[in-house]
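Sample entry follows:

_____
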Amino acid sequence: MSAQVHPSSVVSPEAVLEDGVVVGPFCVIEGNARIGARTLLRSHVVIGPFTELGEDNDVYPHCTLGMGPQDLKFKGAPTRLKIGNRNVFREGCTMHRGTEGGGGLTTVGDDNFIMTGSHVAHDCHVGNNCIFANSATLAGHVEVGNFCNIGAFSAVHQFCRVGSHAFMGGFTVATMDVLPYMKTVGARDTKSYGVNTIGLRRKGFSDVTVEGLVKAHRILFHSGLLREEAMAKVDQELGGIAEVAELVAFIRASKRGIHRG
């Protein structure tokens, strides 16, 4: 089934629309964009140049995906935005292409639900199965793991990381890395409030895993040990639990520091 394009929309002859794409009224698709099969652009959507959307995405009105980065150093290089499959972008979302200095690529994975007014800046990398509540915002060069929940009106500072299965409460400002599997909340005095036990159990994590993470969090942040001593103790006692090992590796790899309890 060929693509369907509303007559009020403007599609560059250099753009590629795969089978089953539906372009609603008053959309603009610029050159060198590629829209994957069965993706729906509902209306008033702008797809910038050098932007790729995968299959079965649902893009609501007034989203702008793939325009140039908000970076004063950017001079129009053909940097890219690459989006995966089965994502939902609600009204007014914005996502920007990368910068030459940041690798030239912004990426968004599969099965994400991005709510109204959310923003993903240049050179960010977002994983799979994430939820961004209304007006969640990533500054440049942010990395977000899989199954993250970023609350409404939250903001993540540039070059920070959000670990997999992290839960950020609404209005949180993250200026350091956000721990995987943990609840992190705070407008300025941002802290980790322990393991997201309810959320992890809802996702099917075993009691052994959840209890291991709880114990690891207690050792890391409430035992009085120095960080390296605490991580060594966690490795020794709980390192056989993959999620605990991931938590420790995340902390060791941090360059900006972490939001802790």
